[in-house]
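Structure in, sequence out. Go:
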């Protein structure tokens, strides 16, 4: 069963550029090496560039575990964790209600 999740976080202004660079590297890694991660997108708030949200879906629990245990996740965490400004990353799980694209 697919897993849908978001991650919300805020970083300090001086951390924004490093986090954006790390996001690009991380998403490229996911695209190249995680076939079970069926969608991964990272967005930055237009109103407050220190705020980010990541949207992702996993084919199943095995894909979710593989993603979470990857070295790439730890590398990405090492960049954003020191500059978190509003507490830890807030992960939220969702249930799909409807979509306008074909299911993976």
């Amino acid at each position: 069963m697919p897993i849908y999740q978001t991650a919300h976080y805020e970083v300090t202004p001086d951390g924004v550029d490093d986090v954006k660079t790390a996001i690009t590297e991380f998403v490229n890694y996911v695209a190249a090496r995680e076939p079970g991660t069926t969608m991964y997108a990272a967005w930055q708030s237009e109103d407050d560039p220190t705020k980010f949200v990541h949207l992702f879906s996993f084919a199943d629990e095995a894909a979710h575990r593989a993603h979470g245990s990857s070295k790439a996740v730890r590398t990405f965490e090492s960049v954003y964790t020191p500059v978190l400004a509003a507490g830890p990353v807030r992960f939220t799980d969702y249930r799909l209600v409807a979509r306008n694209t074909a299911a993976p």
